[in-house]
Each structure stands twice: as C-alpha cells, then as structure tokens.
Amino acid sequence: MSFPSFSWDLLRSTATLIVCSLAATVLHHPDALVPPSTGVLSDPHIGLAINPRVTPRVVNCTGTEAEALSQAVPLAIDYIANALAELEHEGPEGDNYRRWFGAPNRQRHSTVSSHFEALARDDLPGYTFICNPSACTEHESECAFVDYTIKGVMNLCSGFFIAPNRGRNSRASIIVHEATHFFRNGFTSDHARGESESERLARSFPHIAITNADNYEYFAADACSRGGALHSLTDAS
Ligand SMILES: *[C@@H]1O[C@H](CO)[C@@H](O)[C@H](O)[C@H]1NC(C)=O
Questions:
Q1: Would you state the pLDDT for residue 108?
Q2: Is 195 a catalytic residue?
Q3: What's the pTM value of the predicted model, to 2 decimals?
Q4: Three-class HEC string of the chain
Q5: Is 130's C-beta closer than 6 angstroms to any atom of ligand 1?
Q6: pLDDT at 235
Q7: Would you say the CB of residue 61 lies under 6 angstroms from ligand 1?
C-alpha cells in the first residue's frame, strides 16, 4: 500500500512553497520604494505588542537584505500578536475572521487560534534566514519557501525583498505565511494563493481555509492594519 507515503509526498510538495503571484504589482508598490512613514498612534481596540528591533541570523544576505529582515521579523511578530488579540476579542463572528476563515464556527476558530498561539510562542528572531539560495532560480516566481522538516529556517528569494514592508503580500506577512508551514505552527499548505482565491476558499471551503497559509497571512496582515500605528512604531525604531 503506497497511499500513506504518496499523500505524505503530496503534502510535502504543496506545503513548502509560496508563489509570488503578485510579483508584478509588488514591483510597483510604493511601499517597496519609499521608506516607511513614521508616526505614533494607538489602537484602543486591539492590544498591540510592539517588538524591539531584532538582528536575525542571516546566511548569504547583503546588508540591505539583512536590514529588511531586521524590520520584517518584529513586524511579523506584531502581526501574529494582533491576529491573536483580534481572534480573542472578536471570536468567530469578526469581519476579518469571516473574510479569511469563512462562516463563524467555534471549533474552526479554536483551531485557528491555536495556530496563532503556537506562532506567538515560536522564536521567530531565532530563525535562520537564507537569502537567494540556488533553489530560487529553479522556481522564478517564488518569493520564499521553507522545508517544513527543517524547523526555523526560511529561504528568501528576490520576490521577498521587492515586496512592500507591510500589508498583504508584504515581507512581514510572507514571514507569517512561511512560519505557518512548520509542523507545530499549523502545518499549513498552499491550496489557494492570492487574495481572491483565498477569500473564495474561505467562503466555499472554510475547513480547508483554516489549513491554507495565505488565509493566515491575510488574516494577520488585516488584523494588524487596523492597529495602524504598529507598523510605524516598529519601522521607525
Ligand atoms: C551561500 O553562498 C555560497 C556561495 O555562493 C554557496 O556555495 C552556498 O551554498 C550558499 N549557502 C546557502 C545555505 O545557500
């Protein structure tokens, strides 16, 4: 019986990659070109966790790439904290939850929350980030990928570095996306990619949406964007 190993391989192949499907848009995104704005605001609605600047472990990265990571990693941690805060505050009825995880459902909400809790406990600043590994050239459109069996190692391709700092399909949200692939952070797959596919997945197949990395990425990016100032505080540090 080869089914178990076949399905394992299938999972493995779908769980390791993220395609930069919006690479063309990202190239012209103003956030990719201009420095982040500064400003101080606070969000009375969601408890924000402002993380200090970090110096992530990098391999084969230029100074510019390492600098981009030192901003993106704390922002990714903030995204996760905000996602968790919003899940707790709004429960399964929240607009953001419905958009990315579909019809309100306590059990699914609890699964999503447990994955964000695992992400929040994870040591993202302790991850190793490999810049432009040779595997990037085999898949031109990829912006980042992980092998979920190699915990805490993220491979970043050029698409990652031309992505904007924040928001959906940003460096910060891509890190959240990739981190959800690891076994203990949800072991997500890439069933659907991009915003419209992921929204459609949530509407039609919410039980699959809660296993899809992009849905976590967009939920976290949107939860954070309501906080507004979070980015500025982190970016300005
Ligand atoms: C780092 O770059 C060197 C030189 O190009 C290469 O041989 C090595 O495999 C790279 N390391 C990783 C982890 O990709």
A1: 98
A2: no
A3: 0.78
A4: CCHHHHHHHHHHHHHCEEECCCHHHHHCCHHHHCCCCCCCCCCCCCCCCCCCCCCCEEECCCHHHHHHHHHHHHHHHHHHHHHHHHHHHHHHHCHHHHHHHCCCCHHHHHHHHHHHHHHHHCCHHHCEEEECCCHHHHCCCEEEECCCCCCCEEEECHHHHHCCCCCCCCHHHHHHHHHHHCHHHCCCECCCCCHHHHHHHHHHCHHHHCCEHHHHHHHHHHHHHCCCHHHHHHHHC
A5: yes
A6: 40
A7: no
